[in-house]
TrEMBL record, chain A:
UniProt-listed CDD domains: TM_PBP1_transp_TpRbsC_like
UniProt-annotated location(s): Cell membrane
Keyword set includes Methyltransferase: no
One term under GO cellular component: plasma membrane
Protein name as it appears in the record: Simple sugar transport system permease protein
Example GO molecular function: transmembrane transporter activity
Predominant place of localization: membrane
Keywords recorded for this protein, A-Z: Cell membrane, Membrane, Sugar transport, Transmembrane, Transmembrane helix, Transport
Segments crossing the lipid bilayer: 6-28, 40-58, 91-109, 152-169, 199-217, 288-316
UniProtKB/TrEMBL annotation, chain B:
SMART domains: AAA (SM00382)
Name this protein carries in UniProt: Simple sugar transport system ATP-binding protein
SUPFAM superfamilies referenced in this protein's UniProt entry, alphabetically: P-loop containing nucleoside triphosphate hydrolases
Entries under Pfam families matching the protein: ABC_tran
Organism per entry: Amaricoccus macauensis
Keyword entries, A-Z: ATP-binding, Nucleotide-binding, Sugar transport, Transport
GO MF: ATP binding; ATP hydrolysis activity
Superkingdom assignment: Bacteria
The ABC transporter domain, residue ranges: 1-216, 233-479
Listed InterPro entries: AAA+_ATPase, ABC_carbohydrate_import_ATPase, ABC_transporter-like_ATP-bd, ABC_transporter-like_CS, P-loop_NTPase
TrEMBL record, chain C:
GO molecular function list: transmembrane transporter activity
Taxonomic path: Bacteria, Pseudomonadati, Pseudomonadota, Alphaproteobacteria, Rhodobacterales
Alphabetical list of InterPro entries matching this protein: ABC_transp_permease
Transport in keyword set: yes
Protein name per its UniProtKB record: Simple sugar transport system permease protein
Transmembrane segments: 12-32, 52-75, 109-128, 140-163, 203-220, 240-263, 275-292, 299-316, 328-348
Keyword Nucleotidyltransferase: no
Locations listed in the record: Cell membrane
Protein topology in the membrane: Multi-pass membrane protein
Protein keywords: Cell membrane, Membrane, Sugar transport, Transmembrane, Transmembrane helix, Transport
């Protein structure tokens, strides 16, 4: 393969991996606290809509980001209420959140713009554009295509990885967070509020999904389109399991997914097949490869992934 | 109830008498509807666990409140951190742990992962957690249930030294002997009320039992000497490995008709694996098992239905998890496991009418209360649930009955009843394998005893020729009679 | 927590939760500046106002009974099959093969084959996640969701390259010949001498009702059903009782996938007479709401499916009469019902338990 193409693919990998990585870290906070979160996709989706809509109306992309984080956190709060205070089934509330986001985004886009499931296209000043780091042109090649020229959210996502590691393993909050996902009764008997810890984790997850959604609609694309997250929330979840709920492996897993998707884009444009069977196969793989990869990873290459012991179980004081 | 400073105060009572609820209130897990708590004469309000900790109360729960994947150090500082960054807390805790180890003989490596520690050491971590938080009053809830006799002795020494340093200890147990040996005063609880508080020196085991139940109790089981017949079960060189470690190491024994073989040992020394392999829910790696001379398939799991057809019954160790479906009706549980037997089915269909009839019979024969087969099983007491499981298995008239922890979580009244049923079954000429961690139960029911330690049989005794002390040593792997240490034989 | 009487637990709690969800939906309608009461009126007329409309309601009802039963059956074995969407999609390919190849025969042949093939295709699509769950420990929720998208990708690829007639732009197969059209409800009514206006539901409606009865029989009157429920309540106790967890999960998921697949028979052979991209239209997800609302009981599922059938048909009319409320409003209502019934029912249950306790105490006093 041509070296230039490889560099192009790597640059794309980083861009494609960013929202998955943010969602994956969101899931990490939530699941480490013992709340299984299959609502990542919905939170990203509502954030994508909120950011695109705000950017279109207000024109300021930073305000759009803020609104996206708020919208996503609002859904996170509902999820927290269902899972923590009301001790409901976390899988079901997550599934409901995904639907709620899809329906709400559609309804609001219809009400606000009269275009069901879409927002108006955004101009460059309403979006997060690539930032050219110093020596962007001078160094060229890898530096120009991959390291420099990415949007600020890409750098933010990458920085979140070591930050998360530090929070998790070097702070009091991290110690308590890890503990509450493993043994909430130990946390409770140590005089710490289980509910407060879990709410904080769920809200952090909401905020990170908010950034991820804003990235999709205002950096990667230039508008909201119906269902635009395309299940990245679930791929993020698979990456999280693959990474065994640890921050640095999560980065690796997300880059892997990003790479597969980026290769897909590259192949898409450059393939010409005559046979109908082959064409079907190519079309099929093009759309489904990330999902197939997810299944394969969940089925085989994870090894023994031990999730946080208290995941999915509402905390009830035992007698 | 009043507890004097610098004493060890025992609380006894049956299951459901309210011991644990009382302690949970003291520790702020629940709130009392009425009444008050005073410490050193001052009224304290304990709304949450942190109030209790601030008031100087520390608690060692029956089920440890530990984070298994954490190190000892992390477990100790959790909730008592110094500031937002961990490094400072860790350094401080390391120092204090060293001091505590010296003062009370509480040595634990602070960097060990708690999940890898033995149960005795995990309990030590719990005590350290309380002391690290400067607890003056230490509450221990059923602390010896999971310990070997020697670990329990060590715990008692630690408690004595804590007492000597002026700490106050509240000790909750259902083991009357422990109350007699370690406490200064004892309170008895019955049906949620504190019925009596006495200096321990004025009490006796029988008197305590009477106070607990409210009537005279027969602690000994009446039974005639066994008249063993032909050998029913024969186990030869049975070995079981799980995740690469051997849980059962080439054990051999036999049980004859009309005989109760007791399997003693501290929990986790291979008894559960033995039951699982005999029951066909786990695979053996080597060895063979013969039932009435015919080999059983022990090479795979998933054979429980087959075992039933071959004439084995099983009262599992953990009835909540294995023996019973809690949300099911009593009538459904009364045939659970036998639900495919011809008497309850017609083709693919089940016959609820017949199942309910069978349940009514069981309820009557085994005195299950309340006597409504349609009731949800979860609404019955532990003793009555156990009667359903035991009755269900006995009614199938098995040649061999495997029984695990028959009276765990069962109140004294039901214990008497269950013990009588087991002996009656033996007298009908059935072979019984009885696994129990309660030495009293083993001594009271068995005709012969094998003791398990570290996956091996550390000794075998005829009941008349052994006592608590002897079995206790075997449970720790030491055979006084042969003068050898079983652990040492591992080297060979 | 205090106990509720059984009837309150099975009827009152879900009923009040659904009401709560509908009230919140009403607030949403109010928020976008429309009158919720008018909306309700339009929806009820839209769903039941004429024979023609009722036909559509029953058509949707049939779909939701199948997908609802699919989720419910899996719930009984403690499996969350969120993949009804994909299973129905894949089953649609199977049903279309029958419709395309047997169009010149008779519906009497197409009906049993259409049921059989769609069931098998749906079951096959559920089999892989089920197997991966029991043998490899892959989370069935994530794998069934992935299989939804894989099925969608497959349908796009097949329609685009094979099934789409040459020169056509619409992503759908050619229309099946008459012989592969299942009898509509008005035709069925005609057999027993009742003249009716055109009714869009078809003969599968009766199979949906029968499926409810069969599932009920299976769960509560067979020893397999006994084992399914026992396994669902307590997986660990199953092994002790001689119940193979592998067998239970596989059987239940095959049944679940198969039931979801029958939704395709109803839609592809019974109504659209062609394989259309995205023909499942969220019915798989609606099945989750239906199963939750129906407390996983076939009778409850039927009631909930009727409600959702009416909501779908009424919602379509609503979008027509009040353009400010798009038909996707139904997705929001559905999400709210799932949320309130499935994950937030303690909002209703806790106050209700207090009321019951209060009533009991004052009776004693």
């Amino acid at each position: 393969m041509d070296f230039d193409i490889l560099i192009q693919i790597l640059g794309a990998t980083l861009r494609v991996a960013t929202p998955i990585l943010l969602a994956c870290l969101a899931g990490l906070y939530s699941e480490r606290s013992g709340i299984i979160d299959i609502g990542l996709d919905g939170k990203m989706l509502i954030a994508a809509f909120a950011s695109a809509a705000t950017a279109a109306v207000v024109g300021n992309v930073w305000v759009a980001l803020g609104v996206a984080v708020l919208a996503s956190s609002a859904l996170a709060l509902i999820q927290g209420l269902a899972a923590i205070t009301l001790r409901g089934n976390q899988l079901i509330s997550g599934a409901a959140i995904n639907m709620l986001a899809l329906g709400t985004a559609y309804l609001l886009s219809q009400t606000m713009f009269g275009t069901g499931g879409q927002t108006p296209g955004l101009g460059p000043d309403q979006r997060f554009m690539g930032i050219e780091l110093p020596f962007h042109d001078a160094l060229g090649g890898f530096y120009q295509q991959v390291v420099s020229g990415q949007s600020v959210i890409v750098y933010f996502a990458l920085a979140t990885v070591p930050l998360t590691w530090w929070v998790l393993y070097r702070t009091r909050f991290g110690l308590r967070l890890r503990a509450v996902g493993e043994a909430p009764n130990a946390v409770d008997s140590a005089g710490i509020s289980v509910a407060r810890l879990r709410y904080s984790a769920v809200l952090i997850a909401g905020a990170l999904c908010g950034v991820a959604g804003a990235y999709l609609a205002t950096a990667q694309a230039a508008a909201y389109t119906d269902g635009m997250t395309a299940n990245r929330g679930f791929i993020a979840l698979a990456a999280l399991i693959f990474a065994k709920w640890r921050p640095y492996p999560a980065l690796g897993a997300c880059l892997l997914f990003g790479f597969v998707e980026a290769v897909g884009y590259q192949v898409q444009g450059n393939l010409n097949v005559d046979s109908r069977v082959l064409a079907t196969l190519v079309d099929f793989l093009e759309s489904s490869l990330p999902y197939i990869l997810t299944v394969v990873i969940l089925a085989g290459f994870v090894g023994k992934a031990t999730p946080p012991a208290a995941g999915g179980v509402p905390y009830v004081k035992e007698r | 109830m009043a507890v004097a400073r610098g004493t060890i105060h025992g609380i006894v009572g049956e299951n459901g008498a309210g011991k644990s609820t009382l302690m949970s209130i003291l520790y702020g897990f629940y709130q009392a509807d009425r009444g008050e708590i005073r410490i050193n004469g001052e009224r304290v309000a304990i709304r949450h666990s942190d109030d209790a900790i601030a008031a100087g109360i520390g608690m060692v729960h029956q089920h440890f409140m530990l984070v298994k994947p954490f190190t000892v150090l992390e477990n100790v500082i959790l909730g008592a951190e110094e500031g937002a960054s961990l490094q400072r807390s860790a350094a401080k805790a390391r120092g204090i742990l060293g001091e505590l180890a010296e003062t009370y003989g509480l040595e634990v490596d602070p960097d060990m992962v708690v999940g890898d520690l033995s149960v005795g050491l995990q309990q030590r971590v719990e005590i350290l957690k309380a002391l690290y938080r400067q607890a003056e009053i230490l509450i221990l809830d059923e602390p010896t249930g999971v310990l070997t006799p020697s670990e329990a002795d060590h715990l008692f020494r630690i408690l004595e030294s804590l007492k000597a340093q002026g700490k106050t200890i509240i000790f909750i147990t259902h083991k009357l002997r422990e109350i007699m040996s370690i406490t200064d005063t004892v309170s008895v609880m019955r049906r949620g009320a504190m019925t009596a508080t006495h200096p321990t020196s004025e009490m006796s085991v029988t008197r305590l039992a009477e106070l607990m139940v409210g009537r005279a109790v027969e602690l000994r089981v009446d039974k005639t000497p066994a008249r063993p017949g032909a050998e029913i079960l024969s186990v030869r060189d049975l070995t079981v490995a799980r995740n690469g470690t051997e849980r059962l190491k080439s054990i051999s024994f036999g049980i004859r008709a009309g005989e109760i073989l007791g399997v003693a040992g501290v929990a986790g020394n291979g008894q559960s694996e033995l039951l699982e392999v005999l029951w066909g829910t786990a695979a053996a790696t080597a060895g063979e098992v013969l039932l009435k001379g015919a080999p059983l398939d022990v090479s795979r799991g998933g054979r429980a239905a087959e075992r039933r057809r071959q004439g084995i019954g099983h009262v599992p160790e953990d009835r909540h998890r294995h023996g019973i479906i809690m949300p099911f009706g009593v009538w459904e549980n009364a045939s659970y496991g036998y639900h495919r037997s011809p008497s309850f089915t017609s083709g693919p269909f089940s016959l609820p009418g017949r199942m309910k009839d069978a349940a009514r019979e069981l309820i009557e024969t085994f005195d299950v209360r309340p006597d409504d087969p349609l009731l949800k099983t979860a609404n019955l007491s532990g003793g009555n649930q156990q009667k359903i499981v035991l009755g269900r298995e006995i009614r199938q008239n098995p040649d061999l009955l495997l029984i695990g922890q028959p009276t765990r979580g069962v109140d004294i009244g039901a214990i008497e009843y269950i013990h009588r049923e087991i002996v009656a079954l033996r007298d009908q000429g059935k072979a019984i394998l009885l696994v129990s961690v309660e030495l009293d139960e083993i001594l009271g029911l068995s005709d012969r005893v094998i003791v398990m330690f570290d996956g091996r049989i550390s000794g075998e005794r005829v009941i008349e020729e052994t006592d608590e002390n002897d079995l206790g040593m075997l449970m720790a792997g030491v055979d006084q009679r042969e003068g050898k240490n079983v652990t040492a034989s591992k080297m060979g | 927590m205090s106990q509720l009487p059984k009837w309150a637990d099975s009827f009152l709690v879900p009923l009040l939760s659904v009401l709560l969800a509908l009230v919140v939906s009403g607030l949403v309608v109010l928020a976008i500046g429309e009158n919720p009461l008018t909306a309700v009126r339009v929806m009820i007329t839209g769903a039941f106002g004429s024979t023609y409309n009722l036909g559509f309601t029953l058509f949707y009802f049939t779909n939701f009974v199948f997908t609802g039963l699919a989720v419910a059956v899996a719930f009984h074995a403690a499996q969350f099959n969120i993949g009804g969407e994909g299973q129905a999609t894949f089953a649609g390919i199977g049903a279309a093969l029958i419709g395309l190849s047997l169009g010149e025969t008779h519906w009497l042949l197409v009906l049993p084959l259409g049921i059989l093939v769609a069931f098998l295709f749906g079951a096959a699509w559920a089999a892989v996640p089920a197997y991966l769950q029991v043998r490899r420990g892959s989370h069935i929720v994530i794998t069934t969701i992935m299989f939804n998208y894989i099925a969608a990708g497959l349908l796009v690829a097949l329609l685009g390259n094979f099934l789409k007639p040459a020169g056509s732009a619409a992503p759908q197969s050619r229309t099946f010949d008459e012989g592969a059209h299942l009898p509509r409800l008005d035709e069925v009514l005609g057999w027993i001498g009742i003249e009716a206006q055109r009714m869009e539901g078809n003969i599968m409606f009766f199979f949906a009702l029968a499926a409810c009865a069969v599932v009920w029989l299976l769960l509560w009157r067979t020893h397999l059903g006994f084992e399914i429920r026992a396994y669902g309540h307590n997986e660990k106790a199953a092994d002790y009782a001689g119940i193979s967890g592998f067998r239970i999960v596989m059987l239940v998921m095959l049944l679940s996938g198969g039931l979801a697949g029958l939704m395709a028979t109803n839609t592809v052979l019974g109504q659209q007479h062609s394989l259309v991209l995205g023909f499942v239209e969220g019915a798989g997800f609606t099945g989750i709401a239906v199963a939750l609302m129906g407390r996983s009981h076939p009778f409850g599922v039927a009631l909930a499916a009727l409600l959702f059938g009416a909501l779908y048909q009424g919602g379509a009319e609503l979008a027509f009469e009040m353009p400010a409320i798009p038909s996707k409003m139904i997705v929001i209502i559905q999400a709210l019902i799932i949320l309130f019934v499935g994950a937030m029912e303690n909002i209703v249950r806790i106050p209700l338990a207090r009321i019951f306790m209060f009533v009991q105490q004052s009776r004693k006093a």
